[in-house]
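Hello,

I think I submitted the pyridoxal-5'-phosphate job twice by accident. Can you confirm which output corresponds to this input? Input:
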Amino acid sequence: MKETGKIWMNGKLVPFKDAKVHVLTHALHYSTSVFEGIRCYNTPKGSAVFRLQEHVDRFFKSAKLYSMKMQFSKKEISSAILKTVKTSGLKECYIRPLAYYGYGTMGLTPTQNKVDVSIACWEWTMGEGKAGKFSGAKCKVSSWIKIDSRSQPMQAKAAPNYSNAALARVEALENGYDEAIMLNFQGKVVEGSAENIFVVKDDIIQTPPLSAGLLEGITRDSVIQIIEENGGFVIERDLDRDDLYSADEIFMTGTAAEVKSVTQVDKVKVGNAKMGKITKALQKSFTNVVMGKDERFLPWLTFI
Ligand SMILES: Cc1ncc(COP(=O)(O)O)c(C=O)c1O
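Support: Only one job matched these inputs. Its output is below.
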């Protein structure tokens, strides 16, 4: 981690290295936090945050699902995000807003403690980043079942969801794969450990519905809108493991992953084991959109 600029903590910008919390912070013990992952891109017209409004909306939705009382408004958080990026001097970065039950009373009940909010950003350059962006990821169907909304709100981007996701990710990596694909309790495909998933068969693009238990990804929505704006369509339907093995193309979407190709699932090659033409075209369209080169989607960019 390259420490650059400052981190916003409850309204104050503090030096990166001083952005610390007490070891008895509630969220550290009980996973009582929600967060966001946002990107700022260095476009030819200047640095711009991608879909800021939608990320801030999801941040507040996540907090609401956990009955967390935010001491800041959406407007305050949006301007704090822009201020943090500006102060960092970074032209391109990843931004991490976090709301968590802080230090105060210890014990399971979180509500006596204040909800602290922080915003950090750090350097993030476009490129291969995670395995599979250009070369194609090898994915393992996880033996860990995706937790679902019978246990906790899955529409929240909340820390407690990620112990399940991290187990799946680690299992995949330890078995020589790049990423995990998670199934739900009904055996239907949900998503990757931190990405949504799309399957292409006979030129039909399909993705699991929200009811499968996935996070409503902002990149997922962006990609669907890009496809539709270009005259195509996406079918939302429950996907089986068979659909993965018989797919012509598979790609994953996420703020970090952007649009990344999947070329192998378990020991089965996807299509000809190379990035497919639809995935490639979408990667290009998505890059044009985030870089402000597609006028139709300029409203998705908030320039710093
Ligand atoms: C579990 C999960 N699914 C999907 C996504 C993709 O969401 P987004 O496109 O909003 O980054 C993420 C990443 O935030 C995630 O953690």
